[in-house]
Backbone:
């Protein structure tokens, strides 16, 4: 059985997209693990199963991480879906066009800010951060002060004077992501506040591992940097894959960045 499949990325955080009506009756965890294999599959950080109602510019999405676990939302995946739908449906790609997307974290709105070829820039309304606390966690023989919050999905941000070296990152990332404090796991960011309007991060994503970028992770890091690191409420967050803008307004978090459509094709499973 073959089916349509697409791929897009935001700063190297990559996703596969499969129409939901093509996978009825399939175990999505098993299918996702197979698709996301970097060498024997198509390779991705996760798969987004989606449906679209072009007449009113709405869509639904469900994200499954590379390890087969569900995720409430990806800010980058959300923008990638907006880019894919705009590209596929041939909607006039003029600034101000919107998509409204139903996610496991509620309705989210994407506004197109611009595009060039198959790269689209969206400003996404992600909603307010919730349950923001500061705690000290014992992890891997260290005590780390963390800002813990929900940014549509669980987040743990550790502010540091310098980003951790690779060995320390590889030790602390998975230990924090699976820490007993987080029964359902958490996304982890290590963050450095370089200036009131600039933050650098490394990301260990729940269900994936290291990723080049994360939209909700960038947003959570901006919140943590303001709450505990002296940053403002409008910051550029730089990850290994690129830089996104995060605005924390009275209405909630707004995330702006690019997403590039890579291919539309047909998967031919054995």
Residues:
């Amino acid at each position: 059985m073959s089916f349509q499949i697409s791929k897009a990325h935001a700063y190297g955080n990559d996703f596969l997209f499969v129409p939901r009506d093509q996978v009825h009756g399939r175990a999505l965890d098993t299918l996702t693990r197979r698709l996301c294999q970097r060498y024997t599959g198509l390779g991705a950080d996760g798969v987004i199963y989606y449906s679209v109602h072009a007449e009113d510019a709405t869509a639904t999405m469900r994200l499954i991480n590379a390890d087969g676990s569900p995720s409430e939302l990806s800010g980058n995946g959300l923008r990638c879906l907006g880019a894919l739908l705009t590209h596929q449906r041939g909607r006039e790609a003029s600034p101000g066009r919107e998509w409204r997307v139903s996610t496991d974290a509620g309705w989210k709105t994407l506004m197109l800010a611009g595009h060039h070829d198959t790269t689209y820039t969206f400003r996404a309304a992600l909603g307010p951060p919730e349950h923001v606390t500061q705690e000290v966690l014992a992890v891997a023989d260290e005590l780390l002060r963390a800002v813990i919050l929900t940014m549509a999905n669980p987040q743990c941000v550790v502010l540091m004077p310098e980003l951790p070296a690779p060995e320390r990152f590889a030790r602390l990332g998975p230990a924090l992501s699976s820490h007993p404090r987080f029964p359902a796991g958490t996304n982890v960011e290590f963050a450095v506040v370089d200036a009131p309007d600039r933050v650098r991060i490394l990301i260990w994503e729940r269900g994936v591992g290291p990723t080049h970028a994360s939209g909700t992770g960038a947003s959570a890091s901006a919140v943590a940097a303001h709450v505990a690191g002296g940053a403002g409420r409008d910051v550029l967050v730089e990850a290994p894959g690129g830089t996104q803008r995060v605005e924390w307004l009275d209405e909630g978090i707004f995330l702006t960045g690019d997403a590039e459509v890579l291919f539309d094709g047909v998967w031919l499973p054995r």
